[in-house]
Amino acid sequence: MEKILVSACLLGQKCTYVGGDNKQDYLEELNQYFDIVPFCPEVEGGLPTPRHPSEQRGHGVYFDNGEDVTRAFKDGAYKATQICSYLGIKLAIMKERSPSCGPHFIHDGYFKGRVIPGLGVTAMALTQMGVKVLNEEEGRELLASLRKEKQIKDEKTRIAKERENKAEAPKEEPKFEPKERRPYKGKNFEGHKDGQGKIDRKSPRPFKGKKPGWSYQGKPTRGFGRKKKED
Q: Could you tell me the pTM of the whole model?
């Protein structure tokens, strides 16, 4: 199964700077499609939990008390690239606005809540090595598309199995059922209706030929209808 790198806080691990998490319940279902590898760059870089909030400013990362923690963030990013390289990971889902994980937005570095476009230290390192980094909402969209693909695949499999079962099933021969004869409702040979609906075959058939002694035009024919000469 393909592996995917996911920010540990999104999986429910208590590793945020306040000691909490940012759990996303949909990731439990995503585990049906990927082998999830949890990772927190800040903890792996050697920072404690809980810790001071940190933000990027320029090329460095600082705590709100002014302490420079750039080295720890770079160490965490390096470990993330090593894991992805070793396991062949090409996709990651990471926490937006994090100074280490944010794939699209980060804080401006002055701890006033202002958000600007940018990448966290780890997100940038992963992107540079060819790993596609998604935020938590994009991960939810990924799951929706995977569900749809699975439904289409399951439907195709079901249809193929039904066709296969129909092809293997023995065909039943149609049973011959003689049709019921309807009673004759026409006229008999004498031109009268038979009350029982049967043909009276004993009655004489009406003569349909020429009358004896008469031609087709109604003229008398030779040898018929003339008196014999008296000798």
A: 0.69
